[in-house]
């Protein structure tokens, strides 16, 4: 299967039902370079195809995040370019999965530059008008990355405390959880 065939499969996906997303995720995971193709589609395309590719990447990251290892550089270099709010949520989730894996295991590692790119992007998403789910995954990513960048945890705590009273209940709930975890770290 090629990039063109994946685009065709994404284009023919009738809706966002999990069965259709799982089917395309299965296809992409079976081919060499499937994650790379999906990343390129998500970053190079606009509209529905890019969002659908992001949905599939989310599923793949949940199933086997190690498939992202050869594409970490592409992921980190281009994540800040996302403008489609519907694509940001799955990418924020993938980043949280990868950052947790990088902290807990040696099979995934970010270079200093990649880590800085992720930190900058997720602080932007956390403090801008992003959807609540994007903000929640961003705070999780920043929490994980803060273990290797000492300035991140204090800055994250400051931002969470600042916005806690004005954000939605989901933000407040997860923010309180992160703040509690930060008290143990700081």
Rg over CA atoms, rounded to whole Å, is 16 Å
Please, how many domains? 1
Described by strand count, sense and barrel closure, the largest sheet is:
none
Strand-residue proportion: under 5%
The CATH topology is Leucine-rich Repeat Variant
Q: Care to count the β-strands?
A: 0
The global form is globular
The level 1 CATH classification is Mainly Alpha
**Cα end-to-end separation:** 48 Å
pLDDT below 50 for ≥5 consecutive residues: which ranges?
none
Secondary-structure class? mainly alpha
The CATH homologous superfamily is named Leucine-rich Repeat Variant
Note down, in words, how this protein is organized.
Helix content is 74%, strand content 0%. The protein has 10 helices and no strands. The longest helix has 20 residues, at 85-104.
């Amino acid at each position: 299967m090629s990039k063109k065939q994946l685009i065709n499969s994404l284009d023919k996906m009738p809706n966002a039902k999990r069965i259709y997303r799982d089917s395309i995720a299965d296809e992409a995971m079976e081919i060499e370079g499937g994650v790379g193709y999906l990343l390129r589609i998500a970053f190079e395309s606009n509209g529905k195809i890019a969002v659908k590719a992001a949905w599939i990447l989310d599923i793949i990251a949940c199933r086997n995040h190690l498939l992202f290892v050869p594409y970490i550089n592409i992921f980190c270099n281009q994540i800040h370019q996302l403008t489609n709010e519907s694509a940001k949520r799955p990418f924020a989730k993938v980043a949280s999965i990868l950052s947790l894996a990088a902290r807990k295991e040696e099979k995934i590692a970010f270079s200093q530059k990649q880590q800085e790119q992720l930190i900058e992007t997720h602080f932007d998403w956390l403090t801008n008008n992003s959807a609540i789910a994007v903000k929640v995954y961003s705070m999780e990513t920043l929490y994980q990355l803060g273990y290797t960048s000492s300035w991140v945890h204090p800055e994250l705590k400051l931002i969470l405390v600042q916005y806690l009273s004005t954000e939605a209940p989901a933000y407040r709930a997860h923010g309180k959880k992160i703040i509690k975890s930060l008290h143990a770290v700081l």
